[in-house]
Amino acid sequence: MEPDASNFQKQVSPLFAEWYQICEVSSGFDNACMRFVLQLHQSGLLRGDDITDRFFRVLLEISVSHFGEVVQQSPKQPPHLIQTSFLAIDSYAKLVYSILKHCPVDQGTSKLFLLPKILVVTVRSIQKDADEKKEEFNPRPYYRLFINWLLDFGSLDPVHDGINFQVLSAFANAFHALQPLKVPAFSFAWLELVSHRTFMPKLLAGNSQKGWPLLHRLLVDLFQFMEPFLRNAEMGELIRFLYKGTLRVLLVLLHDFPEFLCDYHFSFCDVIPPSCIQMRNIILSAFPRNMRLPDPSTPNLKIDLLEEMSQAPRILSDVDAVLKAKQMKADVDEYLRTRQQSSPFLSELKQRFLLPPSEVTHAGTCYNVPLINSLVLYVGIQAVQLLQARNRSQSQPVSSDPLAIKAALDIFQTLMRDLDTEGRYLFLNAIANQLRYPNTQTHYFSVVLLYLFTDAHQEIAQEQITRVLLERLIVNRPHPWGLLITFIELIKNPGYNFWNRSFTRCAPEIEKLFESVSRSCG
Amino acid sequence: LGIDLTTLGLNLNSSENLHKTFASPWSEEPAKGEPEFTIPECYH
Amino acid sequence: DLGAVGDSIGGAANSGGMHDHLYNLQMLEAAFSKRPSSHDSERAKSYTPRHPTVTPSSYPQAQAPIVNNPAFWERLGLDTLGTDTLFFAFYHQPNTYQQYLAAKELKKQSWRYHRKYNTWFQRHEEPKIATDEFEKGTYVYFDFHVSNEDPNQGWCQRIKADFTFEYGFLE
Fold it and tell me: What is the distance between the alpha carbons of residues A92 and A363, in angstroms, rounded to a whole number?
């Protein structure tokens, strides 16, 4: 095969035309197909080298340009014409599938060794096409190509679980490379592919959850793209459309795969802006399917006695990664271990949470939210582990709370005292993000939040704690179970003297709001 | 205040999995549900 | 890469190959009008005959939707005349949902597909011998009867005595 571009294309086109004829024949397609694949193999086009890349890239370009020509002739495509515009793309998709199915491979090489290479060629072509054409870029032929492949590869013999996961992870990597932050013009097609019923459920079901990190990464890609647009509550029509599409995907996950949302809640909360309360509530409301949640408004509900409250939640996100990245983990561990009052650790905390001025605009806040989230949950996990160790040992009287439990409270009290209103709001959000289904973290942070309410020296802090809870309750459902039981405790338990706080009556509508929310909480 | 999530076209009380008929993030209609079937090689 | 999200919101936006906020919005707007339609993910659903022949327009020009309805095939299974229709769909509509439904119905009627002979067999009586590997006995099988003098050539059912059905060939 001639390596130079124009000749190469001239030699590839007739091969594609020949393939197209084969797809059209009636019986004996299989034999003709195998002969054709063998012919390609013998002509050295399927070695997996540079020629192979060029071969697939030229075929893709021919297919996409065919789509463009058909669409150009009749922009308003009636449905039956849609099939016509995809003829070349469908043919190309089928050729790739047939090659992977029939191409002879050396002993020990995976049948699918060409798939990652073909996907790299496809991703590069899409990125190049999108960068060159900008607003003129048309994602539909590429969307069709991936849909064809997902349907074809999805029909692979399920026995070869390994093959299935190989295919799924190859596509997941391709979609990650095509994430909206990299190819924004592909965003709608991208989310449709990632959430497609032939892809997302397969990533999550089976394969002993090996696909979970891949979907987690894709959802983080989506949230990172949307985050700047979602920071302000009012959204334009376009973002609202994308936002509602995202809600639909999250609702499918909440309904069918709640454990996935449970286990990755921490990293999702890192990239969902604080203003997206309902979207975040969907994730925080997820609970394991085998769990039955007691009605939070049950009179005299003893949540401490719930068995699940003593079980630690599974957290698959990397909780202390950001602490490590900011060289804070060692200091936190040191303070939890020694609770050394002389150490500057506590007094420096606020400063370490502040972002460098250069990043403030981009991040939309002066604080490093993932760092605050990471510190809060990391400290909580350490404290819970020690509390559980102490409860197991029983021998120690309650007064001898291990140092670290008190040290953890020191950290939280310091943050309540030192942070400004914005910082305190983000800190309280980090705590409220742990109020989920019954588990040790929900229990611990519910107690901590109520303790901070009592311990607050200024009413503004108590008002802020109330606000963080209330704004999560007044949005449309769903509402996380842990949030409800915390708010109910706050308004019911006379110990918090809630109703005598002036801010509960600071305006008639606020008063009505508190009454309606407390009614809806039973 | 968010939106009423039951108006997004998904039957959140369904006892069946939603993903089988999830058509698209942009559509309120369930997928018509291509019949899921596989044909053993020897049937060709 | 799969770990925590990154050390500040939108962190990825600073890494290579990313665009700024405004560009993203412009591209999103452009993409909105070209987002996939529901037809974009539909395979060519109607059964496209490989060699379409022109038929009078009064003839049905597309398959009746009922052929996609499993209940239609179950009805055929109950009606012996329908069994031939099941075999017709199985042998003449390869690689389609109809073939799949016909095969499912035949199996329900106790027919078993022999992978080596590509033929459906049904026990004519309890097998004389049955082991873990095979069974042997008299079977009815569905065959295409080809003979010039015989006017009623075509699909037929025959009896095969002393046939050994090795389970290794059972689909």
Answer: 43
